[in-house]
Amino acid sequence: MEPKIIKGDGGYVLDDVPHFSDYLPNLPTYPNPLQNNPSYSVTKQYFVDFDDTVVQRAVQHKDGPRGIHFRRQGPRQKVYFAPDEVKACIVTCGGLCPGLNTVIRELVCGLDYMYGCKNILGIQGGYKGFYARNTIPLTPKIVDSIHKRGGTILGSSRGGYVTSKIVDSIVDRGINQVYIIGGDGTQKGASVIYEEVRKRGLKVAVVGIPKTIDNDIPIIDKSFGFDTAVEEAQRAINAAHTEAESVENGVGLVKLMGRDSGFIAMYATLASRDVDCCLIPESPFYLEGPGGLYEFVGRRLRDNGHMVIVIAEGAGEKVEERDASGNKAFKDVGLWLSHMIKEHFAQIKLNITLKYIDPTYMIRAVPANASDNVYCTILAQSAIHGAMAGYTGCIVGPVNGRQCYIPFYRIVDKPNKVVITDRMWARLLSSTNQPSFMNPHKEAFIEGKQDEMVLSKITAEELTENEKSTGTSTSSSLLDDNHVDNQLLTTNGSTPLRK
Ligand SMILES: Nc1ncnc2c1ncn2[C@@H]1O[C@H](COP(=O)(O)OP(=O)(O)OP(=O)(O)O)[C@@H](O)[C@H]1O
Ligand SMILES: O=P(O)(O)OC[C@H]1O[C@](O)(CO)[C@@H](O)[C@@H]1O
Ligand SMILES: [Mg+2]
Questions:
Q1: Domain 226-364+419-456 belongs to what architecture?
Q2: Which of 164, 186, 188 to mutate to test the pocket of ligand 1 (most atoms within 8 A of CB)?
Q3: Across-strand partners of 277?
């Protein structure tokens, strides 16, 4: 996908999204029907100005570049579809995520109530449903209360993506708006669908709504479902804490999702305050010796009589196999760690009681919480406004709190990860006082889940590289400005333990 860069005065750069007019000149346009709707037309500045854009980096240096801007979402005065011309479809792909049903509901209600579009189809069972399943009609009545349920009423799947068959099905069914709800893999697929649609010269808007409890989509502030997942994780952590503090030398161990990105574990830890140690894929850890996990567990048990550990599924990565979409599938790191800790303390003859809690699927199968429900509504309505206005080949999402249209290529390149040299991880270290596992004088290693040791020496140079490579990423932390706090780094590059 070719970037569509628009430059302006004073170093202004807009990373724009594709539009029908880029490849289909002279399409008819219509006044936006919202102009006649009293709920909207009385609202001052309800319609978005063509030149409104949102800056990617909220924090700017006096003499620094202005950075990239994205097109602001919202209704336009002109639309590219007459209401009865629209045939929309909605598909959900990848793992479950709280809020999927809310987005489906709000797409259906928004298309109907705002734009009078009544021809809406649900594609069942993910991408393969385009060519292997029948569609279901979706109306406001059918979707009325689905947001109260977890999962997706349309079903989902991994794998089964065949571009030509999907686009053939779009053409055969006369679909001209495609709303695709899913994670990074799904949006990669959506990007290819858009390319094929464009190649065939079709007037079909392809708009992605990024979902994932893992929060691994870059650029946007956060993905829907993440808040709910963090909130739901509290219940497991509370249980682990209650179990641990009720016995002598109690250890509670909770495994949370996070294949490559440890955001759920990090935020659940920060929210809870009962967690003594959080282990994530981005921060290699080791068990033995000074500064290792065993030493820390022993110390906490001596000081407090109990402790809680949260571990993300991809921490200490050891890939077992691949799933249907080609994603890594892991051995159970929680089981491995509980075995290792028990064995270590048995060897040194300290009686501990370890309870392992694995709430992973419970966390993502719940309905969205209040704030995710609101967020899902905004995303769905933004997607509709964009498609109606002729924008395509993009996702919708918040950048610095303002909803934008972001070209697909921007989000499929590199996943969003916790940057361990950022302030947010430092805040966590300050809150838990856990070891940083960054000891430049020791060969820090990730201990594999099958007793294999994967050596990965963390050097000061690597830290600096990490800092450099992440300094430009925008949404590595939800609430942070992504600047490395120099105070956190000692001169030799290690992060000091907070006492
Ligand atoms: N590079 C790709 N090109 C085309 N399609 C893809 C690509 N990667 C994944 N897909 C398709 O997208 C769908 C969902 O992908 P995947 O299983 O990776 O989940 P996801 O969207 O990343 O969601 P999550 O990982 O958050 O559960 C699958 O049908 C898969 O075949
Ligand atoms: O068992 P499934 O459905 O493949 O889902 C597991 C994956 O889902 C995710 O939460 C992403 O949705 C990953 O963190 C996790 O590895
Ligand atoms: Mg994914």
A1: 3-Layer(aba) Sandwich (3.40)
A2: 186
A3: 309
